[in-house]
Amino acid sequence: MKSKMVLMLSLVMGMVTTILFFQYMKQTNTEKAATVETVSVVVAKEKIEKNEKISSEKLGIVQMPKENVLQNMVTVQAEAEGKLATAMIEKDEPILSHRLGSEKEEGVYVSRKVREGYSAVSIGVNINQSVSNLIEPEDEVDVIFTKIIKDAANQDVAQSVMLLKKARVLAVGRKMQTPENTKEPYTEYSSVTIEIKPDEAVKLVNASEEGKIHFILNKRPVMNEENKSKQND
């Protein structure tokens, strides 16, 4: 009987000790968590593509231990909004300052304006071929190819065909900004750079070697959100 009492007391004391131990550990962990200093860090709520203009809908804020925060991590959401991603940013990845570019900076590089699946091709032009130098970046142009052929009487005649329709103009000369976005004075240019599919680029280059290229200026597209995104891509 005495031995049973001792055994029961031992079991009870063991259970009490275990409970007290877990309570102590829980309290200790809570105190440690309370003392960890955190910092707000901006992250991508969803995947952001390279050259994409970053909207507020794609950004979020998370708390990170201060000791884990890198110097180039963006901590204020406004610093990333409206910027262009210079590299792809995965979902939940912290936004790093060196991966952000401004529209002004992007205007220096025509390669950053080219959309995925397209190429940039420059064609030499004179005043007549370029609609009296009135073509501007972000205009849309049709491309006419003209070459001299022999007719049935063996006479030289000009033959013109529509080579491309509604090609997006990326640059005229070295100018890549639209008139409303730049204060650069007017300068004549001798080349027009357009954005076209790779197979169309080969056709255009071959045509420019065989004959003459003329541009037909279309009505300027309305700069809605879709067209603005194309300009910033």
TrEMBL record:
Keywords: Membrane, Transmembrane, Transmembrane helix. InterPro entries: Pilus_assmbl_Flp-typ_CpaB, RcpC_dom, SAF. Residues 39-101 form the SAF domain. Gene3D superfamilies: Antifreeze-like/N-acetylneuraminic acid synthase C-terminal domain (3.90.1210.10). Pfam families: RcpC, SAF. The chain crosses the membrane at residues 7-25. This is Flp pilus assembly protein CpaB.
